[in-house]
Structures are given as structure tokens and as C-alpha cells.
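Co-fold these.
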Amino acid sequence: MTDWLSPDEWRAVALSLRVSLWAVAASLPFGILTAYALARWEFRGKQVLNGIVHLPLILPPVVTGYLLLLTFGRKGAVGQILDQLFGIVLAFRWTGAALAAAVMAFPLMVRAIRLAVEAVDPKLEQAAGTLGASRPWVFLTVTLPLILPGVLAGTILAFAKAMGEFGATITFVSNIPGQTQTLPSAIYAFLQVPGGEKEAARLVLVAVGIAMAALMLSEWISRAVARRIAGT
Amino acid sequence: MTLSVNLSHRFGDFTLDVAFEAPPGVTVLFGRSGSGKTTVVNAVAGLLRPDHGRIIAGGEVLLDTETRTFLPPHRRRVGYVFQDARLFPHLTVRQNLLYGRWFAHRRGPDNFARVVDMLGIGPLLARRPAALSGGEKSRVALGRAILSEPRLLLMDEPLAALDEARKAEILPYLERLRDELHLPILYVSHSMPEVARLATTLVLIEAGRVAAAGPATELLSDPAAAPALGLREAGAILSARLAVPDEDGLSRLDCSAGPLWLPRVAGRAGDSFRLRILAQDVMLATSRPKGISALNILPAVVREVRLGEGPGALVQLETGDEMLLARITRRSAAALGLKPGQQIHAVLKAVSVAQENVGHGRPGADSP
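Predicted complex below.
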């Protein structure tokens, strides 16, 4: 079955999956924390944090990509530190693509989880406290199970966004086949070449397939979770 | 163990400023809604940090604003039964009940089976809260709080959200709890029948202040406290023992002043009951009346006559070892020439002791 896609095309699909999974997995803990903080805590700079989180949703992706390059590029403030201290280079590597995807998907993830946190009655958390549970335990045993459907929805949404990320990725890590050429970059590359429509169409089908599978999986999981909670 | 509460807190233009002691037994915080009762309970639980105050439970300081001591809720070992049950929807009844035990480090003996049996929730253990009725939820919430091994139970109108039938279902369990668990219970209520059935100590809260506090039997027969309790519902409590369970559909209960005949009361001879006798259901006669349909006449001595602002008067009577309260008109009080120390007869209409107000005083008694 590997025949119907060329090795380069397979690499693009595999890279996209890897980039998206890492982007989502690495940003999920921060997403939950940020969503919880925005939903429940009152602190100075809350509006600023909210703005920064949502910025990638509103800015042109090219701008986000360029800002990432300025910050995390080899000459960038953070990029230099990462390179010199840990030998981590993000620019023009697949890890950079994962960072770009994570940043772009973050607002969608946070929004979904935040809605779920806001739907949890704080009175339940108070009740757990009077039963002897400390704050972290209340979160793990009451809040987290109750926001699980929202966390799943946010994760799938972020995954889909990461799979489709193009503008920031191509600006930050370029379009190097086998290294930073993700599925959308590959489709774009094929469309730049005369006669590349066929290859592009095949990749489009793959993209649609992955997106549909992710969507159905999330529906199935959230229904199972809802049944568990409402069940007898 | 005694709970000692002293706190003041301001919200907007409302000021709460209360101090009272809750000895073992059920201490009812009684007052209108908005009088600040729930705030007091929340402060004891640690859900609210008052401006000033000191709360001590059994020698341990839960809160002291002077020394900036504030024990967080999860370290107070205070069981809280909320008005709205607040069961965890994602857990089964069994998991809800065992939730507190995870954190209690098994201090006491395993009383899971006993509590489940006492509350009659055995058949519900595998269900989730969504599949429970209101009364069932209340009982599970009660069990969950007890099983967290608290040193003190707080109940914020646990029956207020229930209809009369469900209340009647839960009240016997609360009475068993009071009599079997030996936990101090702080109970918020604005229902006189609940107070009459459950209270050992009564703290009357009015507009954020303690209007009166003391043993429930004393306070309920105190003419000075009656206006605050509500004149219509003012009434004393007599304790009685069931002597003759059934004779012509009536039961004879003996109280310290003599026998009373009531419509049949379920129970066995020897069972104890708390009888609530409304002040407006007590008539007074200077000589023992003859040719009267009322069955229950108790000899009494007038202790205090308190004239109200309107046409009424409240008379406190000593009958046997206990107190009764009678509400009559000022005109009658004058006509009878009532004065402290006077021998008198209190006529109680047999119907005046309502069934719902016949509470059990003995552990393990069946519900009426």
C-alpha cells in the first residue's frame, strides 16, 4: 500500500503526524494550566496573558512565524540561549515545526478547555476540600475528570490545527523535504510545479482522511465520557 | 468536644457579628434566610475567611485572625452536608461515599457497612448521582460527610430542597445520627419542626447577631425568646416515654407531669419521644376542668407571664420537671389573675401534638 504515495510524500505525511503529535502532547499540560488560570484565578496581568494566548489566532500566520524566527532563531534571544546551553536548535528543524504548530494551535486548545473548566461547579471543588482533599488532589480527582471531554475536544482541535499549519511553519522552518516539509508545505510545493496537481490531490485526500478520523475519534470518546457521567 | 465560634465579617452594608458555643449534640442555628447562618457555617468549614474571629474545635484552633492562623478546609476534619448535596457526578455512590476516606488515613474503625446500613443506601451503591432521587442524594451526601471521619458535622439546611415526604424520610436518619454517632453537629435551619425534633442547643440569629442561645428545651419555653422564634410556631418540648402503645387507637405517653393520650404513636412500650406542644394549643384553667372533650390536662405552676405588645400574652408553666409555654390573650391573663407561683391546669388538645413532631429520643427506635 506504500506504492500510491512516493517516499517523499510519505515522509511529509509521517513528519506532519510527528510534528502535530509532539506539538499537542507538549503543549497540553500548559494548555490545561493556562485554561484553569484564566477560568478560575484572579491575578494581575490576566488580560495580558489572555491576549498573548489568543494573539496567534488573530495575527497573520506569517507574522507569528517571523516572530518565532526572531525569538527562537539561532540569533534570536531565546534561540541563542537554547543553542549555547542545551545545544537545541529549533530554526529549520522539525522541532521548530512542532513549536510553530503548538503556538498556532494553543489558543484553540485553551478556549475549549477553558469552557469546560467554567462549566464545572466550584461548589463541587469546595465539597471535595471539606472531605479532606488538598488543592492538587481536588484538581486530579474532581476537576480533571469533569473537564475531560473538554480536554479531549481541545486536544483534537489543536491536533487538526497543527496538521493544517502552514504559514508560520514555512516562515520559521522553511520547506525542506524530509526535514521540515509537512503535509501542507508538500501540497504547496507540488502546486508550484507544473503537472503537480495529481500528487497534490493525493495528499489532499490523505489530509481529509486524517482530519475525519480525528474528528470521529473525538466524537466517540466524548460520547463515551458523557455516558459514563450521566449513566446509572 | 465543644466548638467555640466568635467571628465578625462585613459584606457591603451587612455586618455579621456572632459568638456562641456548640456543646456535643445538635446545635441548631436558627434564623430567617439572609440572617447570616450559612456564613457562620462556611467560616467554620474554612470556605470563608472572616475579617475577624476565632474558631476552636475540641481545643484545636481552626481560625484565629489575631495570630493569623487559618487552617485550610481540607485539614479541618469538618464534615459538611450541603443543602444541594454536591455529589460528584462522575463517581458512583460507593466512590462518593469513600471519597473522604482516601484522605482520612483510616483513623477510625471501618464503619462503612454500618453507615450504609443506617442510612439505607445499600441498594444505591453502584449507581451514579444522576440516577438518584432528591432524598437519596441527601442521604448519600450525609453518608459521605460522616465517612470522611470528621470531628464535627456541619449541615446547611440539608432538608430545605426536599418536599415534605422526603423530609419525613430523612429526619429519622438524622435523629439516629445524633443519638448514635456522638458527633457535635452544627445544623442550619429556619424550620421550627426541625428544631423541635433535632435541637439540643439552639442559637437564634437575627440580622447577623445572636439574639438568644441556650439549651433548646429552655429556649423554646422562654417567653422572651418566643417572638424571635415566631409566635405562631412558639412551643415547648416535653420528653415522654411510651407507656401504652395502643388503646382505642390512642397511645399513652408518660411525661414527668403525668400521662398524655395521643393518636396512636408507632413504637414499643418504653420508647422515648420528644413532644412539641405549640403555645397556641395550650389552654389554661384555674381549677381542673370537668365536662371537657380535651383528653390531656396537666397540673402546672405559673412561672412567668409576659405581656406582648398586641392583645396576646405568653405564659411559662412548670409542669413536672419541664416547661410548657401557653399563648393566651391579655384579657384572659387578667381575668384569671395569673401570677408567678400560681397553681394552674394546662389543657392540651389531643390533636395539638402533630405526628411529624413526635420525634424519637431513643437510639434505634422505629420511625413513627
